[in-house]
Amino acid sequence: MLSRTAENLFWLARYTERADSMARLIAMGSRMAMLPSAQPEDDWRSVALASGAQFEGEVPSDVAGIVDNLILSTENPSSIAYCLARARENGRAVRTALTMDLWEALNDGWRYLGGVPRARGVQELPAILDWVRRYTARVFGAIETTLLRGPGYHFLHVGARIERADMTLRLLDVKYYVLLPETEVVGGGHDHSQWISVLYATSARRAFHWSYSGDYSPWKIADFLILNRLFPRSVAYCYTEISEHLDELGRLYGQRHRCHSTASEMVAILEDMEMGEIFQDGLHTFIEDAIARTNRLSGQIQSAYHF
């Protein structure tokens, strides 16, 4: 496979997953902002900070600013509209490498957000976020059900899992930003509701309940989203998938690179780690380090496969 094709597929998946993840992050912020005793400005600011986006001027602290910057903006690389447009451009560049189902899923409706004014974006925020999640689910469903399991399939999966691991970490980090000025209420009702919001944002509420029988302590929720090896949005699961797909690429091309070692090292770290260690050293510190490792891995993959 040409490196240019690999690059387009890798970023097609990353941008699609980023749009889905951003919708989840904003939905979580919206849920937190509506909680009793919530401070909406702090909640929305925490979403903006955790997104990793760069802003001109002040960080958005209201729903209108979030809609402008993280949903409708065509300039912000983290915005949903930007991500969907870039995913479609990457798909068009490798149209012959895609199945008809995948191309139609990617192409249909991608202009939808271009016709949404800010006022409508604020008023219909839940419906728009729901549309984004259904749109991206259709794209990934087409990947799973129609693509040959060749190099392109593995590059798509590696890109998507890197983005998913990164955003799961950022969703957890919203808790750090929200609770930083009010640590005296950690463990209270508001704190409990915020942790439940993290589960909703990752579609993990039911799976978590099956695993922990309703014990919604912060330690258990963080353990589930970081170390659980069965939940498809956990960091451990994503890294296991990344390592496996990189191993397949190594087998297909007969070469292994630094990215293979980085991924397998992170899998081993997560296997040996316990949540008590993470909370003792600091959840935010762990998240910052894991995000940095994920960014480094992405760069190593691009270097290894020349894109």
How would you describe this structure to a colleague?
The chain is mostly helical and 307 residues long. The chain has one domain (3-304). Helices cover 73% and strands 0% of the residues. The chain has 15 helices and no strands. It has helices spanning 3-33, 40-50, 63-72, 80-93, 100-107, 118-123, 125-146, 151-179, 189-201, 205-212, 218-226, 235-253, 258-272, 275-281, 283-304. Helix 8 runs antiparallel to helix 9 (189-201). It is globular, with a radius of gyration of 19 Å. It starts with a helix and ends with a helix. Residues 179-188 have low confidence and may be disordered.
Short description:
This protein has 307 residues and is mostly helical.
Properties at a glance:
307 residues; mainly alpha; globular; 15 helices
Indicate the topology.
Layout: H1 3-33, H2 40-50, H3 63-72, H4 80-93, H5 100-107, H6 118-123, H7 125-146, H8 151-179, H9 189-201, H10 205-212, H11 218-226, H12 235-253, H13 258-272, H14 275-281, H15 283-304
Distance N terminus to C terminus? Answer: 12 Å
Unreliable stretches covering 5 or more consecutive residues = 179-188
Integer count of domains: 1
Helix fraction, binned, reads over 70%
Order of helices and strands: HHHHHHHHHHHHHHH
- Shape designation: globular
Query: From the alpha-carbon coordinates, what is the Rg to the nearest angstrom?
Result: 19 Å
Mean pLDDT: 90
Count of alpha/pi helices = 15
Work out the strand percent: under 5%
For the sheet with most strands, the description reads: none
SS-based structural class? mainly alpha
